[in-house]
Amino acid sequence: MAVTETIEDFYKQKFNWLPDNLSQDIGHFNVFRLEDCYRPEAKPIVYARRDFYKISMVRGKNIVHYADKSIEIEGCTLVFFNPTVPYTFEHHDNIRSGAFCIFRESFFTEMLRRNMHDLPMFMPNGTFTYSLNAQQEADVAQVFDKMLGEINSEYRFKYDLLRNYLTELIHYALKIQPQEVLYQHPDANSRITAIFTELLERQFPIETPSQRFNLRSAKDFADKLSVHVNHLNRAIRQTTGKTTTHHISQRLASEAKALLKHTTWNVSEISYCLGFEEPAHFNNFFKKLTNATPSSYRTV
Length: 300
Prior knowledge:
Helix content is 43%, strand content 14%. The chain is of the alpha+beta class. Strands 1-7-2-5-8 form a 5-stranded antiparallel β-sheet. A 3-stranded antiparallel β-sheet has the order 4-3-6, with no helix packed on it.
């Protein structure tokens, strides 16, 4: 698996230059037309985690490889990416049309009382693609046009406007699927579950064979949270309907699939970095959850 692509890497690979304001503490933001980024000498998009957020409006037929999932999108689609999940695009036609913006979390959160991780499109396993009809495409394109028009202006408060346009894109997507509301933690069980999920996700993605997944059991997480393991298990089951062990196992299996598909590491190396002492234990775990051995899954 490739190492994390930094925002500096993005500029060097796409444009062979770095903007002057990249190191400013206010949080970086920029916006581009998609067609301006496809130069003959440009490097292909690699499967990797990025250290910045990205929102894209893409047209045409594409496949998004996102964590261990591959999702085909067609027409016009609004796509949200966050730094915790590796991804890449695979184009299946000659259409190179759309727009995208990139930003660091501090750009969004500095002036707003909002946590990025509370938004469904940036949550682990949340909805990150939103198909747009003709009217929605026109609406979203208009927001990107306003961003593109503002980014090079001399207006003193342009970044406040750009932050508003960014927020508008996020809320537009939320309104497309109104059943996905911002999750509020109504009780202690929900708060414990949210913290458990954050601790679990913080250990991923695995980027080098020497990296290791350490919090592997319910007791490991309970100790980290300073609660009794029975209390943790009860809170997670009441909130999600599933056990703590189920959540850990599913996330391990998801990462195992990504490593098997997108790295050349051998099964023993993957077994080790996922916290298994013996490859045989990893084989049994993986087969139980997927009905396939790691080696056979890799060749599918």
